[in-house]
Write a structure and sequence with these properties.
Layout lengths: L15 H10 L4 E9 L5 H14 L3 E7 L2 E9 L3 H9 L10 E2 L11 E5 L20 E3 L1 H9 L3 E4 L3 H4 L2 E3 L10 H11 L7 E5 L4 H12 L4 E5 L2 H11 L7 E6 L6 E3 L18 E3 L8 E3 L2 H6 L6 H7 L3 H8 L21
Parallel strand pairs: 2-5, 6-10, 7-9, 9-10
Antiparallel strand pairs: 1-3, 1-4, 2-3, 8-11, 11-12, 13-14
The protein binds zinc ion (2 copies).
């Protein structure tokens, strides 16, 4: 049974357009914040409803996953409610003093609604409890320690998906060509074969994926595994607070909200998937049946009507009635559905 069923009154009932309009009318600033914690949680449905009520009352927006293994949250909080929000967080024993990661580039429009979902896992990793030991994770490195380790020649592995590392990464990092974290874990283990004694550095957006990865690698014989504390988000915060630190991250930090990415350095390391010009702006194909996430430059957005392919342009140009007919019974494609294994085909 869907654990979220029968709770419709505890969900946002507005359409995306209505939410966006409301957000645009706001005359205050928002803070985009994320946090996670691996901790055994019980009574998830009550917890969910309770968090939803408290955070909704504070006009918090965002996406939160709860599971028996913990919480993973990405939120946008009105600046004037920030204190109340922190007090509310600290009123939950399991969340007390949880480290926040605060976005560096923020237009206040990272999320347009509040969703709290109960899931099997807070990050789908496909591992079973015998595959790792939660008490044996890698050492957490500060930005300074991280830079020093890179300077000493450690192996750097990007634990994100291909569409994330495509637009930004640490110089020299190994970036596996994967679409999911689940498929990435065994691939990384194989890639590192023979390097069990070398120093291995792991990073991801906010640190959560590295918790499991480091435990998994250590369980599989890797002796020297460390992870970037708080991920790229916190690395940048530390850099901003200490101008002496060198920035080793190039390009944009992909984020899983409406902003899609935060610019970290001026380098554009990727190109438009349609014309090959330098571009690091992710868009979703305008054809909702497709919704493909890809890189499209402003001139191609114009030329190809915000679509990924000729087929999608055709669908977009159908009368609304026809389009609705096509959409009927078709499941919504995920916002972060990508395409490493598909070639974008634009017939001229
Ligand atoms: Zn282009
Ligand atoms: Zn498309």
């Amino acid at each position: 049974m869907d654990p979220n069923a029968g709770k419709k009154y505890m969900f946002n009932k507005l359409s995306k357009e209505q939410c966006v309009t409301l957000l645009e009318k706001e005359n205050f600033k928002r803070v985009t914040v994320s946090f996670y914690k691996y901790i055994i949680l019980g009574n998830l449905m009550n917890l969910r409803d309770n968090l939803y009520k408290n955070w909704n009352d504070l006009s918090v927006l965002g996406r939160i996953y709860l599971a028996e293994e913990g919480i993973n949250a990405q939120l946008s909080v009105p600046e004037h409610n920030w204190k109340d929000f922190v007090n509310n967080i600290n009123s939950y024993t399991f969340l007390k003093d949880i480290p926040f990661k605060i976005a560096v580039e923020d237009d206040g429009k990272s999320f347009f609604k509040l969703t709290i979902k109960i899931r099997e896992q807070i990050v789908t990793d496909g591992l079973s409890v015998e595959d790792y030991d939660v008490t044996n994770v890698g050492e957490h490195l500060s930005a300074k320690q991280w830079n020093d380790a890179i300077n000493k020649g450690a192996i750097v592995v990007d634990m994100r998906n291909h569409y994330e590392s495509e637009i930004g990464k640490f110089k020299g990092a190994i970036c596996p060509d994967v679409e999911t974290f689940k498929e990435e874990l065994p691939i990384v283990k194989d890639l590192l074969k023979g390097k069990e004694k070398e120093e291995i550095l792991l990073y991801c957006t906010g640190g959560i994926r590295c918790e499991k990865t480091s435990a998994y690698l250590k369980h599989n014989g890797f002796k020297n595994v460390s992870q970037l504390h708080g991920g790229i988000i916190d690395y940048i915060r530390q850099l901003n607070n200490n101008k002496e630190l060198e920035n080793k991250f190039i390009g944009k930090n992909f984020v899983f909200d409406e902003r899609r990415g935060e610019r970290i350095s001026d380098n554009i390391i990727s190109s438009c998937h349609q014309c090959d010009e330098p571009c690091d702006t992710h868009v979703n194909c305008k054809n909702e049946n497709c919704n493909l996430l890809f890189l499209q430059c402003p001139s191609c957005q114009d030329k190809h009507e915000n679509c990924c392919s000729v087929e999608c342009i055709e669908v977009e140009n159908l009368p609304e009635k026809e389009r609705l007919k096509l959409r009927k019974g078709v499941e919504n494609k995920k916002m972060y559905y990508s395409h490493s294994k598909v070639t974008l085909n634009l017939r001229e």
